[in-house]
Write a structure and sequence with these properties.
Blueprint (H helix, E strand, L loop, with lengths): L1 H6 L2 H7 L5 H13 L2 H17 L8 H17 L6 H10 L6 H10 L7 H22 L10 H5 L6 H12 L1
Length: 173
């Protein structure tokens, strides 16, 4: 009882203060944190729905998505239901955006997914993400073209030779 009393905060201590047996205090604390069986079942249902509907966003990094998955897995664990690595790996692979399609296919063909660890998968996906992001940064440099408005066309071809030569120089760059 002493260990339980010292290990809880002031509010929880109020709940177990009158208990003389540690088992009774433990049951009260367990019920306070987990709720009744009905509440626990409802929480598990909500978590299951949240887990099934979770998708990685286009602008989200693998690391951020992995943290979201871990939050849900830890919530399951705290309610007494453990999610296997196999289930987490399959969930991650099927909920990635299209930019990871090539990597997902290669992982599914090259590895036994049932024995794969989540950390291995996340590491592999982070490597791929770094390479893809590095390549797209180089491709982002582009040339801007000027356009003619309707007013320019109505006024006639009054584009000066200077404007034309500037546009050609920009095109050459």
């Amino acid at each position: 009882m002493n260990a339980l009393s010292n290990g809880v905060d002031k509010n929880m201590l109020r709940l177990i203060k009158k208990c003389t047996v540690a088992k009774n205090a433990w049951e009260i604390l367990k019920r306070a944190h987990e709720g009744t069986t009905t509440v626990k079942s409802a929480k598990l249902q909500l978590l299951t729905t949240k887990f099934e509907n979770l998708r990685m966003l286009e602008d989200e990094s693998i690391h951020d998505y992995y943290l979201n998955i871990l939050d849900i897995a830890n919530a399951f664990d705290s309610l007494g239901e453990k999610i296997s690595d196999e289930k987490l790996v399959k969930k991650i692979l099927r909920s990635l955006p299209k930019r990871f399609d090539m990597k997902v296919t290669s992982i599914e063909e090259a590895h036994d997914i049932s024995g794969m660890k989540v950390d291995e998968l996340v590491g592999s996906l982070q490597d791929f993400e770094l390479v893809v992001d590095n390549r797209t940064e180089k491709k982002d440099k582009s040339v801007a073209f000027t356009s003619n408005t309707e007013n320019d066309v109505i006024l006639g071809d009054s584009v000066s030779n200077e404007d034309l030569s500037e546009n050609l120089v920009m095109l050459g760059r």
